[in-house]
Design brief:
Shape: globular
Number of helices: 8
CATH superfamily: Nucleotide cyclase, GGDEF domain
Number of domains: 1
Helix content: 25-40%
Structural class: alpha+beta
Radius of gyration: 22 Å
CATH topology: Alpha-Beta Plaits
Largest sheet: 8 strands, mixed
CATH architecture: 2-Layer Sandwich
Length: 317
């Protein structure tokens, strides 16, 4: 893990994700062939995001109302044949039901000390393996006011911290992510999925779900058993990452660390958050589904801390 200050040096251009084109479509199933298993659907540009416009050029033209870009739907159709389709492998269907189940489990654990596993399996932790640079999403989570809480309630805070890390860490696994690094009073999660669409939506969904699990499961259980409740800040972004080796030949020390400007931005964005808020950087925002764009609002952000003039940050509500 690199917290190197040179991540935002002005003499080194920041590394950002290449532009991706995302098309949000509504789907209507019109026929299902039970024998072959083939499904026929009508796909239409989502009217929440796109407006059909007239142009002199031939084709079906649409305006993306969020990014003010115009595209010809015919170009998409002609290149769509043979494209793979990926689905989210998240193991939680309803985050509300999951939080309710976990509240009861955590309350029981606080009383008798026995951990109760979620009935959803989640993904087992695995270390990041990058043979070459690739785009991933980072989600940075940090507890607010931890120093004061630790001083005021030393034993209670440690119990609350343990439960929070346990439950939020499990939620990361439910969304097919991994914890890249703990940060003392928080952690940085990483999502590495084959489709940038699924990856972006999972990152948005994970950020909001972490807050829901905190306030729908962790804090009610903590308060019910007399432990201090907690607040967190969450920041996320998307971009290229790679692994580099750090060696000290004299002592034999060797470690691998992830280096990424997107990682640095996620941390800086998290630090800009108010308690119990979730913010994303522009490189993640621009590939989000319209359901997330509708819930995201631009906020003031010190672009100097990430070395990208005019870099925008959005709060997800």
């Amino acid at each position: 893990m690199s917290d190197d200050p040179d991540q935002t040096r002005k003499d080194r251009p920041p590394r950002r994700a290449q532009e991706h084109f995302r098309l949000d479509l509504t789907r209507e199933v019109v026929a299902i062939d039970d024998e072959s298993g083939l499904v026929r659907m009508v796909l239409t540009p989502d009217p929440r995001r796109y407006q059909k416009i007239d142009r002199e050029e031939e084709g079906n033209w649409f305006l993306d109302k969020y990014f003010q870009t115009v595209f010809n739907l015919n170009d998409f159709v002609s290149g769509a044949s043979g494209l793979p389709v990926f689905a989210s492998e998240r193991t939680v269907d309803s985050i509300e039901e999951y939080a309710s189940e976990r509240q009861a489990a955590v309350a029981s654990e606080l009383r008798d000390g026995a951990y109760i596993r979620p009935r959803q399996s989640g993904r087992e932790h695995r270390e990041l393996e990058l043979e070459e640079e690739k785009n991933v999403a980072f989600v940075s989570v940090d507890i607010c006011g931890s120093t004061a809480l630790r001083q005021a309630h030393p034993e209670g805070f440690e119990a609350s911290h343990r439960i929070l890390m346990q439950e939020l860490g499990a939620t990361v696994g439910q969304f097919q992510g991994s914890i890249l690094k703990t940060t003392g009073d928080g952690f940085i999660a990483l999502l590495d999925l084959p489709s940038f669409n699924v990856l972006a939506d999972s990152a948005f969904d994970l950020g909001g779900s972490l807050l829901h699990v905190l306030h729908g499961a962790v804090n009610p259980a903590l308060e019910g058993e007399g432990f201090p409740k907690l607040s967190v800040r969450i920041g996320a972004d998307f971009g290229p990452a790679q692994i580099r080796a750090i060696n000290v030949p004299l002592t034999g020390f060797r470690t691998l660390e992830v280096t990424s400007d997107a990682l640095n931005r996620a941390v800086k964005i998290e630090q800009s958050c108010a308690p119990d808020s979730f913010r994303v950087g522009y490189d993640l925002y621009r590939i989000g589904h319209v359901q997330w764009l509708e819930r995201s609002y631009a906020v003031d952000f010190d672009d100097q801390c990430v070395g990208i003039p005019g870099y925008q940050v959005f709060e997800v509500r």
